[in-house]
Amino acid sequence: MASSIGTAVAAVERTHIRVTELLRSGLDGNQRVEGLSWTIRDLAAHLTTGSVAYREMAEGGPSPYESLERRGETNQQRLDDEPAEDLGAMADQIEAEIARMLTEVGLRADDVVSWHGGTSLPVTAFLGSVVGEFLFHGCDLATTLGQKWPIDRRDALPVLDFLVAVTPLMVNPETSRGVTTTYEVRFRGYDTTTFAFDNGTLAVSTGPATRADVRMSIDPSAFLRVAYKRAGLTRPVVTGQAVAWGRRPWLALKFPGLFQSP
Questions:
Q1: Domain edge (last residue) among 151, 167, 183
Q2: What is the predicted pLDDT for the residue at 109?
Q3: Which residue pairs, CB below 8 angstroms and at least 24 apart, start in 106-114?
Q4: I need a labelling partner for 128 at 20 to 30 A (CA). Which of 27, 52, 53, 169 fits?
Q5: What is the CATH number of the domain that holds 188?
Q6: Residues 135 and 176 reside in one and the same domain
Q7: pLDDT, tens digit (0-9, with 9 covering 90-100), for 84-135
Q8: pTM here?
Q9: Do residues 80 and 188 share a domain?
């Protein structure tokens, strides 16, 4: 079932504190982040500028990411414009911006918040996007440091709220071209969601599919690692964290590739 605002707020608080604690642990800002083109300083600057953007959106302002297709360019421009080098100072700013953002969310009378590309999201999905940023850039940082980075189910569920809301915007136009497939995904401990592809477009609905090509059951934490391109689907299948059946179960392995990274 979808998260409450209180659940999502608690997840934001837990995840951003995990990351800022790492940033204050005496790291070398010039060290390259494993799997990314960024240094640790760049990653910290991205999270800092992102925290500012989320606070501004919570206050009712527009996102600086005017185009979803040009997010990479916007990221680089914002990194170039961020002068901070001290990781501890950036950790302090992240915490201050997130605190202000959560205060603003608590004061809002409406239930939607501006997001990237001129879109808007339900508050829980908006908060889930914040959780996703800290969870997976925290994962990048922990991997670089040789540390484990477990994902708490309580933190995974708000990110699912976000992903279910934005997946129609994140369809990969190349890999989804010509695909007409219906996936029923049973997120364990969460809502069942149906993803119906029709030649590059996607319709998402809550509940089981009347007629699905593939039915999947998957652990939310495992799904998020796949969705954020930090892992493949093979290991969850082998370990029982993901199971597929139905008329064309082999198509489950193609599901992650139909989307761009959030």
A1: 167
A2: 62
A3: 106/9, 108/58, 113/57, 113/58, 114/57, 114/60, 114/61, 114/62, 114/63
A4: 27
A5: 3.30.1050.10
A6: no
A7: 899 999 999 999 999 999 999 987 767 899 999 999 999 999 999 999 999 9
A8: 0.94
A9: no
Biggest CA pair distance of the chain: 55
Residue-range definition of the domain harbouring residue 210: 170-258
Same domain, 150 and 188: no
Domain count, the chain: 2
Q: Are residues 108 and 16 in the same domain?
A: yes
pLDDT tens-digit profile of 179-238? 999 999 999 999 999 999 999 899 999 999 999 999 999 999 999 999 999 998 989 999
Q: Are residues 80 and 101 in the same domain?
A: yes
Tokens of 67: 């185009």
Query: Would you state the pLDDT for residue 179?
Result: 95
Residue 221: its pLDDT value, please? Answer: 94
Length of the chain, in residues? 262
Residues 142 and 177 occupy one common structural domain: no
| 134 against 68, higher pLDDT | 134
Tokens representing 1? 């079932």
Same domain, 63 and 183: no
DSSP-derived pairing of the beta strands 192-198 and 201-206: antiparallel
